């Protein structure tokens, strides 16, 4: 029995559509909540940095031994706390809400860990830098990961990474070394990521 060209194309289109819907339903299980979590953390962290320029928050001096000391502001302490919360929240969501658990989940986790380690290596190699440069770097790094994952999983993540990266670059040069840069990244960067998470949970729901 011969299969017409039109029938073959229709079957191929249906197969691709089913595969796309399957990927989206799997991703919607944890991707939406995770994007919402990190978008919210992004917003709070950068907004806190912006507000630190207008409020005289007390700085604490931390002495480690007799030779090593550091001055730590309350604003700088917000970041590691929020990141720690985000990591544990992401782990909890991915283990509870993901409909399919398989080896690729571990690989994605290791990929993020390796990227985080390399980011610290790059910061050491590229020093000196100021707080605005490291802020832009920290915001653009996860967008790079989204773009890479979008190439392999779903183009939605690819476009999200590209759009937010453009917003970060625009804000960096528009508010060059000015406090408004933090507010720009908080609202447009964190807001976009969190809004995307809400969109996925609403529109990609099975």
Describe this structure in words.
There is one protein chain. The chain is mainly alpha-helical. The protein has one domain (27-203). The chain is 78% helix and 6% strand. It is built from 6 helices and 2 strands; from the N terminus they run H-E-E-H-H-H-H-H. The chain has helices at residues 5-51, 74-97, 103-126, 131-152, 155-174, 180-203; strands spanning 59-64, 68-73. The chain has a two-stranded antiparallel ribbon with strand order 1-2. Helix 4 runs antiparallel to helix 5 (155-174) and helix 5 packs antiparallel against helix 6. The longest helix is centred in the N-terminal third of the chain and has 47 residues, at 5-51.
Features:
78% helix; single chain; 6% strand; 206 residues; two-stranded antiparallel ribbon; 6 helices; mainly alpha; 2 strands
Kindly summarize this structure in a few lines.
The protein is mainly alpha-helical. The chain is 78% helix and 6% strand.
Rg? 21 Å
Mean pLDDT: 75
Adjacency order of strands in the biggest sheet:
1-2
Low-confidence stretches: 60-65, 67-72, 100-104
Strand content: 5-15%
- Distance from N terminus to C terminus (CA atoms, Å) equals 37 Å
Mass-distribution shape: elongated
* Largest sheet, strands/sense/barrel: 2 strands, antiparallel
Helix content: over 70%
Overall strand count: 2
- Structure classification: mainly alpha
Tell me the count of domains. Answer: 1
Order of helices and strands, N to C? HEEHHHHH
Number of discrete helical segments? 6
């Amino acid at each position: 029995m011969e299969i017409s060209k039109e029938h073959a194309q229709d079957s191929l289109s249906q197969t691709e559509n089913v595969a796309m819907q399957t990927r989206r339903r799997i991703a919607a299980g944890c991707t939406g909540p995770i994007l919402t979590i990190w978008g919210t953390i992004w917003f709070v962290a950068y907004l806190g940095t912006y507000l630190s320029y207008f409020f005289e928050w007390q700085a604490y001096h931390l002495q480690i031994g007799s030779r090593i000391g550091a001055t730590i502001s309350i604003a700088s302490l917000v970041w590691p706390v929020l990141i720690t919360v985000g990591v544990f929240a992401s782990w909890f969501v991915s283990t509870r809400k993901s409909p399919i658990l398989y080896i690729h989940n571990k690989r994605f986790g290791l990929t993020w860990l390796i990227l985080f380690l390399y980011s610290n290596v790059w910061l050491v190699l590229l020093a000196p830098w100021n707080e605005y440069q490291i802020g832009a770097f920290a915001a653009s790094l996860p967008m790079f990961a989204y773009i890479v994952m979008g190439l392999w999983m779903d183009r939605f993540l690819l476009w999200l990474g590209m759009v937010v990266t453009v917003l970060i670059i625009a804000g960096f040069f528009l508010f060059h070394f000015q406090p408004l840069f933090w507010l720009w990244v908080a609202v447009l960067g964190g807001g976009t990521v969190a809004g995307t998470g809400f969109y996925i949970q609403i529109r990609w729901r099975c």
